[in-house]
Amino acid sequence: MEKHDHSHDHDHSHRLGRGHGDQKEGAGLVASVITVSDRSARGERADASGPRAVELLTEAGYEVRAVVVPDGRESVGGALAAAVAAGADVVITSGGTGVGPRDLTPEGTVPLIERELPGVAELLRREGASHTPMAVISRGVVGVTGGERPALIANLPGSIAAVEQGLAVLLPIVPHIVDQLRGGDH
User: Fold this and answer.
1) Hey, which end of the chain has fewer CB within 10 Å, N or C?
2) What is the reported pLDDT for 5?
3) Integer distance in angstroms from the first to the last C-alpha of the chain?
4) Are 166 and 124 in contact, with CB atoms under 8 Å apart?
5) In a domain, 69, yes or no
6) Alpha carbons 154 and 93: distance in angstroms, whole number
7) Are the beta carbons of 52 and 159 closer than 8 angstroms?
8) Phi, psi values for residue 32, rounded to 5°
């Protein structure tokens, strides 16, 4: 019987706590969900998109933290910086990506991004546009932070449908992106 030497196999899933079989892709990873909404932050409207993002990420095996902040460049930037500093591997924002005067989520995100992932942002808009033509109005950005422990940040529009469609695109690729950020093979 021939023995197979597994020492050269290129399975790096152990590095992030992901295994084979029934183990969920997000196992061992931390996600932060930031809902950006003036009305939800003031308690005038219940946040629906954030809890849906939390639900989907939790089902995928992520440890999830969530916060609601008002619209604005500073509030978004502060919440993103806090999430990354607290150890988030991926940060999903919901809301503030349109063209309204208070829609400044991309402006709050860009200063934290070291390298943009425009193809992912384009894919999110393309997937959204297959459901509603309004998706092309989203100015959401996707990219990775710098520093000792980089993270992936993705801006999604502030609706349940946009969160569901966006996470359907993101969930399959997030573990690979995070693995690369931590030094894994391509």
Assistant:
1) N
2) 41
3) 33
4) yes
5) yes
6) 6
7) no
8) -120, 135
Q: Radius of gyration of the chain from Cα atoms?
A: 17
Quickly tell me which residue has 């003031």 as its tokens.
Answer: 42
pLDDT along the chain (186 residues), means of 10: 39 37 79 97 96 98 98 98 98 97 97 98 97 96 95 98 98 96 80
Please tell me the distance from the alpha carbon of residue 83 to that of residue 129, in angstroms, as a whole number.
29
Q: What is the CATH number of the domain that holds 42?
A: 3.40.980.10
The answer to whether 166 and 121 have CB atoms below 8 angstroms apart is no
Which position has the token pair 């520093």? 147
> Within 10 Å of residue 113's Cβ, how many Cβ atoms?
18
106 contacts: CB under 8 Å, gap ≥ 6: 96, 97, 139, 140, 141, 155
Length of the chain: 186
Cα 72 to Cα 126: distance, rounded to the nearest angstrom = 26
Q: Tell me the residue range of the domain where 75 lies.
A: 26-181
Q: Name the domain count of the chain.
A: 1
**β pairing state of 115-116 and 142-144:** antiparallel
In a domain, 1, yes or no: no
Tokens of 90: 């991926």
- Please, which residues bridge with residue 65 across strands? 32
Nearest alpha-carbon partner for 158 in 62, 64, 73, 53: 53
Q: Token pair 């706590």 is at which residue?
A: 17
Asked whether residue 20 is domain-assigned, the answer is no
